[in-house]
Amino acid sequence: MIITLTLNPSIDYTLTVDEPLLDVEVNRTTSEQMKVGGKGLNVSMMLDKLQIPSRAVALLGGFTGDYIEQALQSYPRIDLTRVPVDGMNRINVKLYHGPGTLCVNARGPEAGSSVRQTLSDLLEAAGPDDWVLVCGNMMRGLDEDFLTTLCAKVHQRQAGLVIDMEALSPQLIERCRPDLIKPNFYEFKLLTGQSDLTLENLPQAAAKLRESGVGNILVSLGADGALLAAADGIYRLTQESIEAVNQVGSGDAMLAAFVGKLTEGCTKAEALAWAGAAGSSVAMTHDEVSADQIAEGLHRMHVHKL
Q1: Considering just the CA atoms, what is the radius of gyration of the chain in Å?
Q2: Model confidence over 223-265: pLDDT tens digits?
Q3: Is the model's pTM score more than 0.85?
Q4: By the 8 A CB rule, do 182 and 218 touch?
Q5: Alpha-carbon separation of residue 238 from 21, 40, 88, 128, 304 (angstroms)
Q6: CB crowding 15-45: b at 16 or more within 10 Å, else e
Q7: Residue 218 pairs with which residues in a beta bridge?
Q8: Which candidate, 249, 226, 256, 222, places its Cα nearest to that of 49?
Q9: H-helix or E-strand containing 135?
């Protein structure tokens, strides 16, 4: 079973304004859309599209938490575990205006000690055949010490551990010892402190980072595909050109497809191709994507081992 932990869920409220933005007058939208947000939930929703079941553990509170719970009922392969929190989950605003995008993320509620204990208790059910994915930023009240303790529990249960969050550091990786991380190129440069890193020297930098205690590193590269640094070598995914219109969720889709296909017995190369197809399919539309659309994208993906 794949278990996703979403430690700061949200509702993503997307607005589109065709006219130039006005400072004083009222701006009027041409379209609006509300979606469940939070990286772990995005992973579970993509797994559902790929017909792969998952257990989604999410910190939910208030009417926004109720909305998230209700929306997830339309995904039959998601087994939602609601961990109650005081307050309401975030509403994040994504404003598309012409060629520009404005994103404003709310800070959300604060998790108390009972939340931390509940999350730890829930991981007692994890086992050697499971993957635990800790995705996205942590809610206020949760810190690196909590994350380290949570990861130790996953290791104790002998489950696979995936961490996908911006706040990673080499020191935190050494403490948590994840089996997989999935930074994008910008996050990888921050993680390694190499602002001048290029695609040409990325393989060497990823191989070196593995020495800090991470099993596999999947770096999403947007239009340039992805790179996987694994124990058995470096895999490079390239893809044919697409028209990308959506900047939200493609990395989560990539992670979901990669881990999901590994659990179905695919090789790393096959799983990486599925990951690229899922990520690019999401980037090509603001609408929901289907398993058929993802499968059709496989022909655009090319994986080779360096």
Answers
A1: 19
A2: 899 999 999 999 999 998 877 777 677 899 999 999 999 999 9
A3: yes
A4: yes
A5: 37, 25, 41, 33, 9
A6: bebeeeeeeeeeeeeeeeeebbbbbbbbbbb
A7: 228
A8: 256
A9: strand 131-135
